[in-house]
């Protein structure tokens, strides 16, 4: 009896499959280890009866390699309408910052080396003079983010001692940053004063005692207490702090280096003005209104900054060379007040006119309508963008969005259509993230300065 080949039932040996010319081609591109790993998975899948021939194996290996090697973190289009979106990476960086990061990333740099003296330098040196110049502070230091800045200042200045804070300012930001928790981790004892809505000067004065190390004011970035409320100004608090020889720290959160109101934006505390009121130390984020990389900036009195810099926690929370390079480049852009708003993307996007945004949306409309098909109705409508990152949640910026609505009369179908659309948008080569509101998908075009790239995707997908 002649033997009948039965290749369909039993998978080949690994060694044999690895020698297939097409498999060898994959090895040449991706290396033997990776191909072997995926091949074993594919052959197991054959054994279990899910696939049954050579072509299937090749296909499975190829797909698995692609999935493995696909970058997890990718560029997306932020059409949510929230400019400084924490989940989408906050501030976009200017080209100057990208170039500066690349320059130090490829090789050695003078990160902690003083080129003038040939001695060891401090990594803060690259940004400190700029921060001081732009805020009027005597000294400054930088750490990984603003939460770290708050932790570090509290620990360095008030470990095992008391910090006086108003009950109206015991903030939580983004769920994982709660002032009382950070304070406990910093080794400080929280001394709450006043009531949620009202805190008076005498509340602070009565709380100050021999164990008090610091007065803390936290900018209530992401909410506002309105109506019957009183909080002390920085100047009033500074007076109390000075009279009792206790330093005053203010956590500004976003903290702008320039007056946003002058740009037609809602007011946010300006760092230099806050320091002028007599505040001893401020902390603020590098990637919120400043428009730079993720960082926490600490600025204020030289003696306090020196103590903060000496803390072992500073070493643990310090920034890497790329962050410092990017931050320095962004701070340098602030040297020219005439051009900074145009050159710092976060500020440029925040100040973009509604007319300009609307024209972007209108330019996209026909191609989007063709891409989504007739089941969805597309138009351009006026919306409100938000600054984001906890800044000014009550204030909004007039903007324009592409609005997509299902034409179905059935509510369930409409909501399913929107979910399907959202998924399709997320699956684009450069995913598009919008927001769903009032039975429609809104694609706010504020952060879309170059619609060509998006238009190109809608063509290939159609
Ligand atoms: C955003 C914010 C923080 C945290 O800053 P990160 O840069 O996100 O670490 C802390 N305090 C306030 C008031 C904030 O607004």
From TrEMBL:
It holds the Pfam family Se-cys_synth_N. It catalyses: L-seryl-tRNA(Sec) + selenophosphate + H(+) = L-selenocysteinyl-tRNA(Sec) + phosphate. Pathway: Aminoacyl-tRNA biosynthesis; selenocysteinyl-tRNA(Sec) biosynthesis; selenocysteinyl-tRNA(Sec) from L-seryl-tRNA(Sec) (bacterial route): step 1/1. Residues 12-47 form the L-seryl-tRNA selenium transferase N-terminal domain. The modification N6-(pyridoxal phosphate)lysine is found at residue 288. Its EC number is 2.9.1.1. Its cofactor is pyridoxal 5'-phosphate. One of its GO terms (molecular function) is L-seryl-tRNA(Sec) selenium transferase activity. It comes from the Bacteria. The keyword Protein biosynthesis applies. It is found in: Cytoplasm. Keywords: Cytoplasm, Protein biosynthesis, Pyridoxal phosphate, Selenium, Transferase. HAMAP family: SelA. PANTHER family: L-SERYL-TRNA(SEC) SELENIUM TRANSFERASE. Converts seryl-tRNA(Sec) to selenocysteinyl-tRNA(Sec) required for selenoprotein biosynthesis. Belongs to the SelA family. This is L-seryl-tRNA(Sec) selenium transferase. It comes from Pseudomonas neustonica.
């Amino acid at each position: 009896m002649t033997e009948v080949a039965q290749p369909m039932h039993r998978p080949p040996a690994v060694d044999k499959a690895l020698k297939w010319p097409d498999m060898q081609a994959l090895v040449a591109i991706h290396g033997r280890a990776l191909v072997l790993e995926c091949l074993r998975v594919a052959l197991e899948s054959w054994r279990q009866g899910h696939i049954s021939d050579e072509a299937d194996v090749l296909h499975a290996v190829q797909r698995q390699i692609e999935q493995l090697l696909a970058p997890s973190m990718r560029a997306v289009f932020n059409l949510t309408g929230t400019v400084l979106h924490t989940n989408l990476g906050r501030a976009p960086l200017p080209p100057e910052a990208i170039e500066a990061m690349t320059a130090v990333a490829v090789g050695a740099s003078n990160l902690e080396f003083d080129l003038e003296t040939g001695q060891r330098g401090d990594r803060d040196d690259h940004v400190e003079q700029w921060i001081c110049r732009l805020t009027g502070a005597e000294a400054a230091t930088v750490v990984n983010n603003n939460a770290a800045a708050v932790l570090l200042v509290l620990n360095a200045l008030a470990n095992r001692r008391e910090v006086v804070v108003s009950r109206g300012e015991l903030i939580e930001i983004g769920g994982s940053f709660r002032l009382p928790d950070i304070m406990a981790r910093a080794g400080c004892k929280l001394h709450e004063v006043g009531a949620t809505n009202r805190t008076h000067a005498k509340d602070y004065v009565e709380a100050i005692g021999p164990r008090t190390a610091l007065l803390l004011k936290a900018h209530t970035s992401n909410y506002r207490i309105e109506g019957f409320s009183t909080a002390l100004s920085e100047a009033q608090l500074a007076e109390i702090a000075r009279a009792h020889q206790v330093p005053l720290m203010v956590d500004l959160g976003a903290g702008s280096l320039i007056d946003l109101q002058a740009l037609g934006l809602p007011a946010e505390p300006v760092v230099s003005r806050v320091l002028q009121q007599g505040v001893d130390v401020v902390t603020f984020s590098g990637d919120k209104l400043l428009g730079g990389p993720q960082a926490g900036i600490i600025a204020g009195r030289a003696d306090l900054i020196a103590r903060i810099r000496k803390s072992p926690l500073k070493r643990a929370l310090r920034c890497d060379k790329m962050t410092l390079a990017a931050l320095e480049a962004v701070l340098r852009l602030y040297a020219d007040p005439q051009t900074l708003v145009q050159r710092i993307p976060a500020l440029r996007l925040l100040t973009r006119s509604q007319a300009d945004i609307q024209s972007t949306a209108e330019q996209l409309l026909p191609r989007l309508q063709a891409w989504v098909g007739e089941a969805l109705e597309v138009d351009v409508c006026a919306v409100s963008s938000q600054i984001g990152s906890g800044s000014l949640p009550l204030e909004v910026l007039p903007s324009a969005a592409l609005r997509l609505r299902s034409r179905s009369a059935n509510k369930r179908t409409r909501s399913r259509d929107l979910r399907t659309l959202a998924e399709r948008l997320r699956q684009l080569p450069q995913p598009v993230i919008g927001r769903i509101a009032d039975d429609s998908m809104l694609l706010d075009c504020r952060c879309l300065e170059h619609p060509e790239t998006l238009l190109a995707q809608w063509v290939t997908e159609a």
